[in-house]
Amino acid sequence: MKKALIIVDVQNDFCEGGALAVPEANEIIPYINSLMEENDYDQIVLTQDWHPANHKSFASNNGKKVGESIILNGVPQFMWPDHCVEGTFGAEFHQDLNREKVTHIIQKGKNTEIDAYSGFQDNNHFMKTGLDDFLKYHDIQLVEIVGLAMDYCVKFTATDAVANGYITCLHFNGTKAVNVKPDNGKDAIFEMIQKGVTVLG
């Protein structure tokens, strides 16, 4: 069975000192590096938030405060600080992430009007990113998922992987939650399990 490792959004803005830093994010990078070193993956894919500066998920572009919500193209949209703007240092992968064995990069969130948490598609399910096509082209059947953040982009990438027919595992030690609300991370784990994701301790 061919397997892939999907590393979600390990970018400077989500790590320590970043515009949207996930608590303890930097602690998962050595674990992710060890997975790549110790396992023989057929493909290793990075997803990368890659937003235009005028992206509608940014509070600054809507006259809103971070943490407020709006309806964006028919779906609720949390208002984030500006982050992972295309071509900026914040959008770059963290320097400690070993990328020697990476075989493919998927950029997401490029459409100004629609956010994209999942590595597979935007939040409205209008446009696919090409990740599913890439994995199926390479006959991948099992995906292991790590990265940031557990309660947003990791959760949606994992549940979409299940929906697209992949045996899907989440490495609990390879992810951290934003926890906008204290139980968001815990709730995300329960939701992933309910939808068929296997959580590896």
Description:
By secondary structure, this protein is of the alpha/beta class. It has helices spanning 28-38, 131-137, 150-163, 184-194; strands at 2-8, 43-49, 69-72, 75-78, 104-108, 140-148, 167-176, 198-200. Helix 1 (28-38) links the parallel strand 1 and strand 2 (43-49). Helix 3 packs parallel to helix 4 (184-194). The mean pLDDT is 97.
Task: Record the SSE blueprint.
Elements: E1 2-8, H1 28-38, E2 43-49, E3 69-72, E4 75-78, E5 104-108, H2 131-137, E6 140-148, H3 150-163, E7 167-176, H4 184-194, E8 198-200
Parallel strand pairs: 1-2, 1-6, 2-5, 6-7, 7-8
Antiparallel strand pairs: 3-4
Helix pairs in contact: 3-4
Largest sheet: 6 strands, parallel
Query: In order across it, which strands form the biggest sheet?
Result: 5-2-1-6-7-8
- State the distance separating the first and last CA atoms: 22 Å
Structural class: alpha/beta
Low-confidence stretches: none
Mean pLDDT: 97
What would the principal axes of the Cα set say about the shape? Answer: globular
Give the H and E element order: EHEEEEHEHEHE
- Quickly count the helices: 4
| Approximate strand percentage | 15-25%
Radius of gyration: 16 Å
Helix content: 10-25%
Number of E-state strands? 8
